[in-house]
Amino acid sequence: MKSPKENALDRYLLSLLTPGTDSHTLATMLIADAEIEALQDYANSVSIKRLNYNDHGPVHMRQVAINSVKMLNLLKQAGIKTSLQEEESGSYEDSVCAILLASFLHDLGMSVARTDHEMTGLVIARPIMERMLSQLVKDDLARKVAIISIASEAVLGHMANRKVHSLEAGLLLVADGCDMEKGRARIPMSIKTHAKTGDIHKYSSNSIERVTITKGDKLPILIDVEMSSDVGFFQIEEVLLTKISMSPAKSYVQVHAGVIGKERKVYL
To answer: What pTM value is reported for the model?
Structure first.
């Protein structure tokens, strides 16, 4: 059974998409799919219970989808075309569909293991992408290939350890890095364990109070981060900025961050 948080995120995601469009239809399919939900739940079990990492399950993947769609919309408002549009291989809607698939499926490899989970995850995700798009785009093979190819690149590249080249995959990188509010570390923080590798992620995430994605004053996207203590700068400097530096969307993103009540640092 879905949590109240998942249901709230589902409603919010759908509110960002126009009813009747392919992206809205695909989001509805992704939200309702039992196999995806089961894989996300088990990936989270491995991440939290076995490895003592942050949330890598259904809430995280929905939040990444929301972040991705927000940023795509901001770029559209600024008149910036996606890679599929620029290369005349697809439409804006196709780009949204690709990034929705990647957002919902990018961490499925955590259901197996942390190491190379982006590669394991793609093996798991490809049949699901095929199944979803066979329903959505039916006989348009070229369109299906383009969407799946972009989504696959985004899944493979989301750890920032291999270069991605499409704007869509680059946005998934940034959207993934933006999911660092304290709720993501709530469960692992509540589990008493001996100190181990990876603890800095849960402690730094637990200090992040709020992340907002809005229109920037100089660039199309402004990411603003509020934190309760300086340990949160680990998330900014070691996770988010690392992902942004590897992203083709870097030139469109501003980052401001700081401890509540203190002056913000301007990173980009």
So the answer is: 0.90
